[in-house]
Design brief:
Blueprint (H helix, E strand, L loop, with lengths): L1 E4 L8 H14 L4 E6 L4 H12 L7 E4 L4 H9 L5 E6 L5 H9 L2 E6 L3 H4 L2 H14 L4 E6 L8 H10 L5 E2 L8 H8 L12 H15 L13
Parallel strand pairs: 1-4, 1-5, 2-3, 2-4, 5-6, 6-7
Helix pairs in contact: 1-9, 3-4
The protein binds adenosine-5'-triphosphate (ATP) and magnesium ion.
């Protein structure tokens, strides 16, 4: 199973989501490969910090790949792992297209702000293009960094729902300090103490939507 966390907007939460999902999958006993396909190397830096802080190591394997090597490298390494999670950069790079060409799931976080949602058409085009060579690709969009109040969340949700290229995930991650606080110490938000119950519940809901095999196909559209 290969999951790409992508999109063309910087700072939407790709690395936050990719690292948290990798940690949660590993925590559930899966053999996980986290691929850092962004030359900013956020996931690599995070994993180095995590390894330094945890006697047992990160709990997953992390490799950095760029450009066409994202395709060839992941094709070579994926059979050795149960789950591959790819963190892509915030631009339409060769790496992102390479990741899209071989993944099962493409997961795109959107912040409910105009500049972010304006990239939706571009990302939908990338998905349609990728489906010509990867027809089974499942693409999901969800709201990250939701506003605590106001109408922007609902407006962004309507925009995301209107795009046939994506399945809209109704689970939202709020703007919560716990995500940054956990990342700063090499932890997933579910591992942070004291725990932020809302952040934990939200990331668990996203994880459950994507990966909970106990669920029926109607509540687990990724079918994994
Ligand atoms: N739900 C959230 N609540 C609060 N802060 C968040 C949330 N999601 C992400 N952030 C913060 O926003 C910043 C950008 O997040 P992140 O690095 O995950 O984005 P990115 O999409 O990977 O960025 P880039 O495009 O540069 O790779 C980080 O400081 C992160 O801690
Ligand atoms: Mg990133």
């Amino acid at each position: 199973m290969i999951t790409v966390v992508g999109g063309t907007k910087g700072g939407s939460g790709k690395s936050t989501v990719a690292t948290n999902l990798a940690i949660m999958l590993a925590g559930a006993g899966r053999d996980v490969l986290l691929v850092d396909a962004d030359d900013q190397e956020t996931s690599t830096d995070f994993t180095n910090l995590r390894e330094a802080n945890r006697p047992g190591g990160a709990g997953y394997t992390c490799v950095a790949l760029t450009g066409a090597a994202v395709r060839t490298g992941v094709q070579r390494l994926a059979p050795k792992h149960e789950h591959v999670v790819i963190d892509t950069g915030g631009r339409d790079t060769i790496s992102q297209r390479a990741a899209l060409s071989i993944c099962d799931i493409y997961l795109v976080p959107f912040a409910p702000r105009s500049f972010d949602v304006w990239t939706l058409d571009k990302v939908a085009e990338l998905v349609e293009e990728a489906r010509t060579i990867n027809p089974d690709l499942k693409a999901f969009a969800f709201i990250n960094r939701a506003d605590p109040r106001g109408s922007e969340n609902a407006e962004a949700a309507e925009m995301l729902k209107s795009k046939p290229a994506f399945t809209f995930i109704p689970t939202t991650l709020g703007t919560r300090k716990a995500f940054g606080a956990a990342a700063a110490t090499g932890l997933g938000v579910v591992e942070l103490r004291p725990q932020d119950p809302k952040a934990t519940e939200e990331i668990q809901a996203l994880y459950g939507y994507l990966f909970d095999t106990a669920k029926t196909s109607s509540t687990n559209p990724a079918g994994v």
